[in-house]
Model the fold of this input.
Amino acid sequence: MPRTISRNLHLVAFFLLLASLLTIGLSALEKQPASTYHDRRVALAARLHGGVAILFAAEEPLLDFMPYRQDADFYYLTGWNEPGAALMVVGAEQNATPAHAYREILFLPTRNLRMEKYTGIKLDAATPGAAKTSGVDEVMPMTSLPGVLNALITADRPLSANLWTHPDSTQSSALLNWTSTTLGEAANFTPHDLTLLTTQLRLFKDPEELALLGKAADASIDAQRLMLRSVKPGVTERAIAGKMIARMMENGCERPSYAPIVGSGINSTELHYAENSATMAAGDVVVVDAACEYSMYASDITRTVPVSGHFTDRQREVYNVVLGAQRAAAAAFVAGKSTLNDPYRRDPNSLDTVAWQYIHDHGKGLHGEPLSDYWIHGLGHMVGIDVHDPSGYPAVLRPGMVFTIEPGVYIPEEKLGVRIEDVFIVGQDGKLIDMIASLPHTAEDVEAAMKATK
Ligand SMILES: [Mn+2]
Done:
């Protein structure tokens, strides 16, 4: 076989191997169609009024064995799951001189062949088919970013007052400092907060996002069911957390959406207890706040269960008040009118106020004080790519939104904490859908599930 042909075959084989490796890497998460991410960038551009948005992907962790998670806005707009990239979206502007059209550019870092031996093959702007693989109109090397921005502003000076970035991004600050210095107009470069725009988009989940959130919910429910069968006196909190994480991963989730909270006894009264170091004792309750994320979409579930399998009368009384508050909030829900949180609990449309009033009216502490004295957090939060998805509170709840209702009562002197948390979708018909409906809610159903063998 002639040498040149042989070499071409090697090249073909190399690109086939590269393509298959990239496909494996990119398909590890269930992505939405490329057109969906493109539509989101177009929707963002429509809110820029001719401006320019620049955002950066999460950096590779300093230590290569540390877990990597993409920046939530970046993932929402690109589905891109590799570190070190930047995205530029340019809004169309007819009134600029010269007028400029919509543009979207993905800037990719140059491949580091030595690091790839540690962290796997990445794609860069020189990779054949990079634009098609990424689904972004233009792909350029990261080194082009300052020059592209500089050229845009040079052609249309007012753009410097219409730049949108993540306000806490050190990369954005460095880029804008450099650009403003080279253009000699440092004073005009005060970027707008990009999250004000991405939050408006991310609040409303499309059907495919709801499906991913559903997979995260179902995997989490299964892990919670395993917990119900595994809690017993003498078992450690950590062992429960470990079993749940294993089950989440068996169910296809990439990780828990937050460090699992398994707090028994006095630990049940500590809201974000994650040490999980105690051994569970008969007579105590255990608060288990644990859920996972599926293809970057999170769930968030809490159940409170009796370690010995049976609530005491007092535990049951407090449990029923908390469950009643969750149900009261769900029953009061009206799409387009209800809001989620109200720190002052004065807004009659706030579900938080409804739940707080229920707890206030239905239970007492040991000294006759209302149980509402022992509820010290808000009623809930949005759920999406982030377990605490951004919303700009107080958000009016509308179709397509996904949020938690999680009232809680924490009484340290009784070593008694109760929290019950479900994730809800506001359906297109305005009705509330409980994504966690199949997991036991009542004290009696929790007790029965603890006796189940499988
Ligand atoms: Mn939560």
About this structure: Residues 204-451 form a domain with the Creatine Amidinohydrolase fold (CATH 3.90.230.10). The CA atoms of residues 184 and 273 lie 51 Å apart.
